Amino acid sequence: MAHLGVADLADIAQAAYGRELSDVVRLHGGTKKGVYRLTLDDGTTGVAYVWRATEDYWPAHEHDPLFGNASGRDLFLTAHTALSEAGVCVPRLVLVDRDVIVVEDLGAEFLEKLLDHDTEALERLWDDLAAMHQRTSPRYGRPSALQPLDAPPVPDVVLQRALGHLEACCERVPRIAAERDRLETQLRQRHSVIEPRTAYGLIHGELGPDHVLVADGRPVLIDIEGVMFFDIEWEHVFLELRFGPHYRPVAGLDPARTSFYRLAQHLSLVEGPLRLLDGDFPHRDAMREIAEHNVERVLVC
After folding, report:
1. Between 75 and which of 26, 43, 225, 248 could a Cys-Cys bridge form, CB atoms 3.0 to 4.6 Å apart?
2. Are residues 51 and 160 in the same domain?
3. From CA 47, how far away is CA 16, in angstroms rounded?
4. Mapping DSSP to helix (H, G, I), strand (E, B) and coil, where does residue 61 land?
5. Which of 237, 235, 216, 213 is nearest to 226 (CA)?
6. H-type helices in the chain, by residue range?
7. Is 170 a domain residue?
8. Other CB atoms closer than 10 Å to residue 115's CB: what's the count?
9. What is the reported pTM?
10. Which residues of the chain are modeled with pLDDT < 50?
């Protein structure tokens, strides 16, 4: 996949800063959008998010309406507003264009590099997440596109998604195929004991320490297009997976939802990386490691 250069983003830099663009570097990460550091002729920098088909590494696929299209300028903007209203730090907007947004370059470290020694930033992150999760809605979905009150309950949506992931995993992973019936039974049994719920919290949706910058001691959330109102147990299962020993448990989570969502997320983290590898995503070893790790977790979950 060809990356954008100075000529491609010169007009964006001019519109955002009124200056000439001297250098462009595509930053690591970003499977559905391009993330570029813009260096201007005076040495200052900004970051451009670019949503174009040429920046999307995912192969063509029939997406589910809730999870499958967590990308795009409009989703970014609605998530930016929702998180800001919750008191969570997000990068300041500099320019909003048709398929490009420019934000401030915080010049910050990712939290994943600071986990072992920056306990203050980590504690502030847990406080920010608690504030997010306490913002609730009687309907789930994206802040700008909430589902109707009579929509299928969240656990039903997750069950259908997980069953689809199980089928896809069985086609690719013989060890999972050998356990198909047991895993389907586990999904259905864990789903069957979940009690109804009428309020949903605001979640990031894919929050690992690689999606948090630390600027002046404050956590700043990035890759925010997946923000939605949802069961907060979904977020906590992912946090536990990604933060490991640094995860801070909270009281009041529904153990039935947590158990069900844990298996569903492990299946997702096998199916997604393997499907991404069908395309030309460059960081292939990392995706294979994610898939293999989650195969093991599926089989013991």
Report:
1. 225
2. no
3. 11
4. coil
5. 235
6. 6-17, 73-85, 119-133, 154-172, 174-177, 180-192, 232-243, 255-276, 284-300
7. yes
8. 17
9. 0.93
10. none
